[in-house]
Amino acid sequence: MARTDLFDRSSQRALPVWLPVAVAALIVARVISSRYAVKSATDLIRWVPAERAARMAGMTQKPILYEFTAEWCGPCHRLEDEVFRDSRLAALINEKFIPVKVVDRKRETGTNPPEVARLEAQYRVVAFPTVVVAHHRRNPPATLVGYQGAAHFEDFIRGIP
Amino acid sequence: MSATVILETLRRHFAHIAYVAAVLMLLLIGTTMAAVDGPAGATFEIMKLFIIIAGCQIIGPEFSSGTLQLILSKPIHRARYLLSRVAGVVLALWIVIALAYSADVIARGIGGHKIAWLTSGGAATAVAAQAMLVCSLMALFGSFTRSYLNVALYIGGQILLSMIGGFLQIISKIDRGAFAALGAFLRSHPGVISTIRTIDRNVYPDPPPIPFDRNWLLLVVSNAAIALLLACLIFRKREVPYGAD
């Protein structure tokens, strides 16, 4: 009797060799690529107006991260460039905190809006940048004065429970 | 992969009245939004549900209909068939994404609005990558479930992971009352919440904040590849007897 089924049934369940190879290559590429942050042309933080932050913090139980900054402050721009435009760090900040940017205008206009003045007095801000992480049920707030690089900043925000 | 299976999958999609109607509806919504200068890339946001519906028919329903039993009685490699089916569905979705992008650009051009090439292109690329991941996950879930349970698993998993993550985050802040002990445990073991968040981010990634984020694209594509590998590993062992359903 002539054999019509020439297909080797045992190989029907075989796994193509290229598939695990491709998966391994993609995982390696992903690990290597993740070491080099992708920078955005714009700030990636979802800043919240100061007047809404307390209500949002109460609802989400997240601490508020205040960034006290000023236009003329060079290290503030470095912080914004190296941290707030970094997709990984920005995602971490957006997930963990209610971010609020507080821009000091004293040098430009001679005075600050009342809300800015109040927050600067409340957190005793004397230099820029100053980053304050405040939780409504935890005292005292964590404060980082000055900018000493993205890694140092990351350690600071990761160290906050 | 089998070109025949890919082309047949494509043909089945574009010859299906419901698929064509859904595509036309999507294009109409996208064109209207672009004509009134709506947010760039917004069309792709509404495509997510469409992707889930298209992706859920990769393999699970073929068990119930008996199609798979018939196909596997032929001399065809299981993994090759599964991968070709996924490729066909992904291609069918990519065609729709390309059409939506073109419609967005043309409508904005005709309406005299600014064309946000980068934002819209980035959103299209992100949704194309997400389509690949969703289809791979649907193939994975479909490789061990019956009928449309794969879509239930996908959506259920998304809701559950997000809920568990949110609840644990809230409980971790509690330091008095009935949940104080659990809150203290979660605070002293931050890995519990971060593991759930990591799984959530990997399986159900949000679109990236930056158009063409290399790291995000690699995350999505590598996770899709892992899901496909697992799907093939499960599918090669699965028995497909006639009349099982």
How does the major sheet of chain B shape up?
none
**Helix fraction of chain B by DSSP (H/I, runs of at least 4):** over 70%
The share of residues in extended strands of chain B comes to: under 5%
Number of helices, counting only DSSP H or I runs of 4 residues or more of chain B: 12
Head-to-tail CA distance between termini of chain B:
28 Å
Low-confidence stretches of chain B: none
Helix content of chain A: 40-55%
| SS class of chain B | mainly alpha
Could you state the order of secondary-structure elements of chain A as H and E? HHEHHEHHEEH
Q: Could you give a short account of the major beta sheet of chain A?
A: 4 strands, mixed
Q: What would the average pLDDT of chain B be, to the nearest integer?
A: 85
Structure description:
Chain A has seven helices and four strands; from the N terminus they run ααβααβααββα. Chain A has helices at 18-34, 50-60, 74-84, 87-96, 106-109, 114-122, 150-158; strands at 64-70, 98-104, 130-135, 138-145. The longest helix of chain A is centred in the N-terminal third of the chain and has 17 residues, at 18-34. Chain B is mainly alpha-helical and 245 residues long. Chain B has twelve helices and no strands. The chains are: A alpha+beta (161), B mainly alpha (245). Chain A binds chain B through residues 5-7, 11-16, 19-20, 22-23, 26-27, 29-30, 33-34, 37-40, 44, 61, 87-88, 90-91, 95, 137, 161, and chain B through 72, 75-80, 83, 169-170, 173, 187, 190, 197, 208-210, 213-216, 218-219, 221-222, 225-226, 228-229, 232-233, 236-237.
